Amino acid sequence: MGAAALGRADVERGARAMGATIRALRSYAHMSQFALGERVSMHTNYIGAIERGEIWNPGLETVDRVAEGLGVSVAVLAESYATAAEQLTLRVDTTGGRPQRIAAAYDAKALGAAIRLTRRLANLTQQQLADETGLHRNHIGSIEAAEKPTRRIATIARIAHGLTAHLGNQAPPLLPLLVQVFTGEATLAQVRQAVASMPSGPSVARSPHASADI
Hints:
Mean pLDDT: 85
Structural class: mainly alpha
Shape: globular
Largest sheet: none
Helix content: 55-70%
CATH class of the largest domain: Mainly Alpha
Low-confidence stretches: 201-212
């Protein structure tokens, strides 16, 4: 086992941090909640609930729409969720604007492939990743196969946290990159390159069962 799996308190803390980041970016842009809601076709009350962290497990599509309304990469919001850090401590550049999409539509297959690729590079089976995250193996398998109809940020955060724990103590959070793959801001090649460049920790030792459920 690596780091402890994310619990409800962890994801709620992440949601509050992401909400604070959204509020900070909106305020910086001199934009009201109503104006942001108009941009992204969401009710003002829903925007307010997200900013207060009351929506602790929004869909990835929702997070991306809010990021688009703010004119930033979805990685900015995903990193604040993953690290429970507000905007001023983010390592993601918030000044670069909205990246050009590589894909025109949300791609659950690409997200599943990115998770499977990273899991294999970390020498983990689906069962081992399930043990790390507290999710059922079948749940992870269905996400990798793009069978799940919804992609919620808390679920992907749990998977990313479990994978990161096996990629070294200094590895940056994977959630922003995985979300970027889903939204079309990043490719599988970028995932492979990013994971390969991470400092390997002692937990990346080869497992004799690592290819059991490829």
